[in-house]
Amino acid sequence: MKNHRYVDLKAIAWHAMEKYGFTPRFPTPVIREVNAIHERTFPAGQNDTGDLRTLLWSSIDNHDSMDLDQLEFCERGQDKEIRVRVAIADVDVYIKKESQTDQHAAHNGTSVYTGIETFPMLPERLSYGITSLLPGQDRIAVVIEYAVLPDGGFRPLGVERALVCNKAKLVYEEVGEWLEGTGPIPRLVQEIPGLEEQIHLQNEASQLLRKQRRELGALELDTIEAEAIVEEGLVTDLVVRRQNMARCVIEEFMVAANGTMVSSLGNAGIAMIQRVVRTPRNWGGIVMTAAAYCENLPSQPDAKALAGFLIRQKEADPERFPDLSLTVVKLLGPGEYMMLEPGAPPTGHFALAVIDYTHATAPNRRYVDVINQRLVKSVLERGKSPYTPEELIEQSAWLTDREKAAKKVQRFMRKAAAAVLLRDRIGGTFDALVTGASDKGTYVRVISPPAEGRVVQGEQGLRVGQKVTVRLVHVDPYNGHIDFECIGSLK
Hints:
Blueprint: H1 9-19, H2 28-35, E1 49-51, E2 57-61, E3 70-76, E4 82-89, H3 100-108, E5 112-113, E6 118-119, H4 124-130, E7 138-148, E8 154-171, H5 172-179, H6 187-191, H7 195-216, E9 226-231, E10 234-240, H8 245-268, E11 272-276, H9 283-291, H10 303-316, H11 321-332, E12 336-340, H12 367-380, H13 389-422, E13 429-438, E14 441-446, E15 452-457, E16 467-476, E17 481-489
Parallel strand pairs: 1-8, 2-8, 15-17
Antiparallel strand pairs: 3-4, 4-7, 5-6, 7-8, 9-10, 11-12, 13-14, 13-16, 14-15, 16-17
């Protein structure tokens, strides 16, 4: 190994957070306020709080996640329906509007996961502790309930407050491999009576929901976001989290839960924040992209036609599909938050193929979810909305900006980590795919490790999708730069 100067990736992460307008350190008044909070006990029957602790609740998340926002439970209903309950951590019960902690969370807007350092939206005593739905702990929650229909649609059943208790903290990879038949049954699933049947029922419900959304035109996108594996401060590898059946369970349950939240707020006639991806303005660019693959899309935006094209390309060329996905994502345009007035038609989410959608299932990690939680609790308590429409408009714009900034931090840190991993391989050669070729520069994605960089020599004549051999010529972790020379083309 070459004698390189030590690169402090944590310091780089802190600098990136500040560069993009975040406050990475919790101010002293916030810490003081949080340390003064007393964990509360909620006896059954208090006010509007029910007791659902006996249900076989479980969570599925990343292996190292401590900020658990949601639990799931299913049971069979009438007429072949599957009744789903999703319990969401009640963050608002501890964090009051306009408190010091609330103002800090509103400013940052989101937790930022860089792979090197995690910057939680709320202090760890809250998000990793008393507001986290940790196993074996009685917690107050907002429970969203809906029925999954035999055809894959869902019927909102309502929202309530209840006591819950997580019986098992499960891991995406372990559950996914088991459901897909490539791994053993997870230990907790095997040991806890009824949990195996419960997870199979959750998977059944999610597959129904997924089939319905795909038929409506939900887009199957698969972009590559490499995560750094760090051991004792050193980057040892880059890995890509694979979509699997366990992740699909949570994704489908959250889409339906968020739709149910919109339904509950809409029926109450109060203004809310919706999550939207507009009908693509640059549909022409998507049509041209499809034409490059010898596919014809309609001249007007058509989610079903685009979804079909993506499915066919994923099956035909899985290696290049992530780069096609990224191109389509850019042409679709970013997601955003918008205030929705009572009775007004929702904008909808083009990529998910849903009309009623918001973010309300991750209040430990996203501030917009805290806002929507407060809104629905005001409905349950038959009180006045805690936010004016003007406040919701302002918050929507700010939180959209914070989400974009968080993605910039994460993207920069992926490049910085990759630069550190590769700096001992200057002069080495790699197989790569061309991901961008324009006047602004030519870029490639290395197949292994999945690092991205710019071609600074030999880039003439390269085209997007072409498979090439590149030589690594320079890395700069502090600026997130990785430079290559193209030395050949592959078939």
